[in-house]
């Protein structure tokens, strides 16, 4: 497989997934994509301060502060003084925020299952297994090669 082919496949897969997410957000109509991303990060963290939420989203704290204002106004997130330090706030999902996120996730999973359903059982299983491996490996950490991989191994120096 050439790098060009892999790049084309990766970009196509990214476009499919982003398209599914955009269509699901449009169908939902209750929150923007950025708000849905914030809800997702909050769900993963359970509770966060502004810096943690900003880091999780890859945006600035000032952007996050305005976003949290909108989430709180919409009833999707709760903002309270931190129990640890007075200088911080703690942001959590409200039940309404969890509900919006669940409906969004349900729409995305339904669309992804429809795409997977276009594949035969063996290929579908292979795709799901590969995605499980890909999502389980932290960014920047190479996955160890296993027997049968087409990756080349480099002998240890010594």
- Described by its quaternary structure, the protein is single chain
Q: Give the strand order, joined by hyphens, for the main sheet.
A: 1-2
Stretches where pLDDT falls below 50 for ≥5 residues? 150-158
| Gap from first CA to last CA | 31 Å
CATH class: Mainly Alpha
Structural class: mainly alpha
Our count of helices gives: 6
The helix/strand order is HHHHEEHH
Outline the biggest β-sheet: 2 strands, antiparallel
Brief write-up:
By secondary structure, the chain is mainly alpha-helical. It has a single domain (3-136), classed as Winged helix-like DNA-binding domain superfamily/Winged helix DNA-binding domain (Arc Repressor Mutant, subunit A). The chain is built from six helices and two strands, in the order H-H-H-H-E-E-H-H.
């Amino acid at each position: 497989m050439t790098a060009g082919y892999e790049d084309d496949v990766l970009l196509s897969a990214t476009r499919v997934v982003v398209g599914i997410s955009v269509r699901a957000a449009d169908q939902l109509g209750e929150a923007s994509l950025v708000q849905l991303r914030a809800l997702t990060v909050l769900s993963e963290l359970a509770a966060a301060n502004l810096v943690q939420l900003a880091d999780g989203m890859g945006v600035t704290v000032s952007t996050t502060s305005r976003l949290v204002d909108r989430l709180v106004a919409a009833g999707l997130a709760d903002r309270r003084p931190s129990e640890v330090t007075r200088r911080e706030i703690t942001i959590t999902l409200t039940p309404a925020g969890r509900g919006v996120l669940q409906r969004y996730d349900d729409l995305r999973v339904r669309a992804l299952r429809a795409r997977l359903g276009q594949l035969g059982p063996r290929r579908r299983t292979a795709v799901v297994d590969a995605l499980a491996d890909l999502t389980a490996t932290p960014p920047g950490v190479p996955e160890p090669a296993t027997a049968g991989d087409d990756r080349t191994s480099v002998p240890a120096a010594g």
